[in-house]
Amino acid sequence: MTGTAEARYDIRDIGLAELGRQRIAWAAREMPVLRLIRERFQGERPLEGVRIVACVHVTTETANLAYTLRAGGAETAICASNPLSTQDDVAAALVADGFSVYAVKGEDHDTYYRHIHQALDHRPHIVIDDGADVVSTLHRDRRELLEQVLGSTEETTTGVIRLRAMAQDDVLAFPVIAVNDADTKHLFDNRYGTGQSTIDAILRATNILLAGKTVVVAGYGWCGRGIAMRARGMGARVIVTEVNPIRALEALMDGYLVMSMREAAPLGDLFITATGNLHVIDREHFPLMKDGAILCNAGHFNVEINLEALAELAAGGRRQLRPLVEEYRLAPDRAIVVLADGRLVNLAAAEGHPASVMDMSFANQALACAYLVANHRKLEATVYPVPEEIDREVARLKLASMGIAIDELTEEQETYLRSWQHGT
Fold first, then answer.
1. Is residue 146 part of a domain?
2. What role does this protein play (predicted)?
3. Residue 159 annotated as part of some ligand binding site
4. Would 90 disulfide with which of 13, 20, 78, 259, CB 3.0-4.6 Å?
5. Is residue 130 part of a domain?
6. Residue 409 included in any domain
7. By the 8 A CB rule, do 364 and 384 touch?
8. Structural domain span for residue 278
């Protein structure tokens, strides 16, 4: 696992590099945990000679992860995990700093997968995935590379679902660490990051006033919780739709209206999907919606809104109203508006999660990569949680960076918690 390849790339404009560097440096100010890990990596070099392929949203926060991996000794090639999420100035800065990057904002489907294959040409030992597209491509089309892959990490709920299905079918060829499932990831990134960045993207794209609007949030997982919380905080009435009775009950007791999508369709002014599933807003729902209803998606893939069915229903055609805002006219007096072509709205129409919350997610990524390199021989080809010691270390470092101290158990308390003799 040695050797450094010359940087290769396919990006929009290398001339944007200086702007990208400025924005990366701004994000770094909000990522103290990753900075501490980078300093540790510079001394320990746990990734010396390791080739990493990172299929990620190419953002300022991701760039800081890339620099941390390099500090640990890794050679990292980067491709986009979503056709609309790349920040072209960041891609340029990374190339200027010697990384191989294959990512252009707005790339089409064929280019997206060509970029994945170009990244895989770097013959990775470790894969950092965001939606499992690289891992699935490896198993489907690039099986000659599987033998040298030590393991992978996965950033998203959607990706973890796909990877667990692969493990269940006994086709997964190497161990995967589900970074998404770390407490210091999903409790903060998914809830507070998605909540804030989704609302931010909707407002940037449309400039609508949320106060007084009825917002329908499909899915009450951690992402849906965050979106519902922020929409209510902006003065909206919030309806939650769910298929899980426990989550539906939780949403009800958190103070939201809960109903089926069919019931919610005539009521909503703004619909936000966050389920990770297919056709959550479907053909049957569009005719029920009011004129001007706005639809967007905060899930990983652009399948949650059935856009093919909507296009078939749009007898009056389609037109662009603003950047990333498209109108589907169902009748002369009624239209439905879709944001960002149904793709991940917070990254297509805004900048994604704030750096402060990505600090913890990417700290988990960096430490999980080092863990895989050190322990891959002990691991089976299945999906593992982030080791608890990594999760707790990330939380400890984050608290320390914020100047917050917490209590520690005394020896007496630890003994009590291990005992069974004490009673009433």
1. yes
2. May play a key role in the regulation of the intracellular concentration of adenosylhomocysteine.
3. no
4. 20
5. yes
6. no
7. no
8. 192-348
User: Could you tell me if 236 and 89 lie in one domain?
Assistant: no
Residue 88 annotated as lining a ligand binding site: no
- 119 and 175 in a single domain? The answer is yes
Domain termination residue (choose one: 326, 348, 370): 348
Q: Is the pLDDT of residue 5 over 60?
A: no
Annotation-wise, does 141 bind a ligand?
no
Task: Please check if 369 is assigned to a binding site.
Answer: no
Would you say 224 is a known binding-site residue?
yes
pLDDT per position as a tens digit, 17-27: 999 999 999 99
Q: Helical H runs in 259-303?
A: 261-264
423 pLDDT band, cuts 50/70/90, is confident
Ligand-binding annotation for 130, yes or no, is yes
The response to whether 2 counts as a known ligand-binding position is no
Residue 268 known to bind ligand: no
How far CA 113 is from CA of 135, 196, 296, in Å, comes to 12, 30, 24
Report d(CA 60, CA 87) in Å as an integer. Answer: 8
Query: Is 220 annotated in some ligand binding site?
Result: yes
User: Is residue 15 part of an annotated ligand binding site?
Assistant: no
Kindly state whether residues 233 and 285 are assigned to the same domain.
yes
Number of neighbouring beta carbons within 10 Å of residue 64: 23
> Is the same domain home to 67 and 173?
yes
Query: Under the phi-then-psi rule, with left for phi > 0, alpha for psi from -120 to 50, and beta for the rest, what region is 276?
Result: left
Same domain, 362 and 316: no
For 290-335, how does the pLDDT look when each residue is reduced to its tens digit (9 = 90+)? 999 999 999 988 999 999 999 999 999 999 999 999 999 999 999 9
Rounded Cα distance, 125 and 395, in Å:
28
Is 219 known to sit in a ligand binding site? Answer: yes
Is residue 276 part of an annotated ligand binding site? no
pLDDT band of 6, cuts 50, 70, 90: low
> What's the CA gap between 284 and 288, in Å, rounded?
8
Q: Is 59 annotated as a binding residue?
A: yes
CATH, residue 332: 3.40.50.720
Looking at the fold, whether 142 and 238 belong to one and the same domain comes out as no
| Residue 273 identity | T
Segment 56-108, tens digit of pLDDT: 999 999 999 999 999 999 999 999 999 999 999 999 999 999 999 999 999 99
Do 25 and 120 belong to one domain? yes
The reply to whether 403 sits in an annotated binding site is no
364 labeled binding residue:
no
Q: Is 195 marked within a binding site?
A: no
**228 marked as binding residue:** no
Q: What is the CATH number of the domain that holds 396?
A: 3.40.50.1480
Q: Is 190 annotated as a binding residue?
A: yes
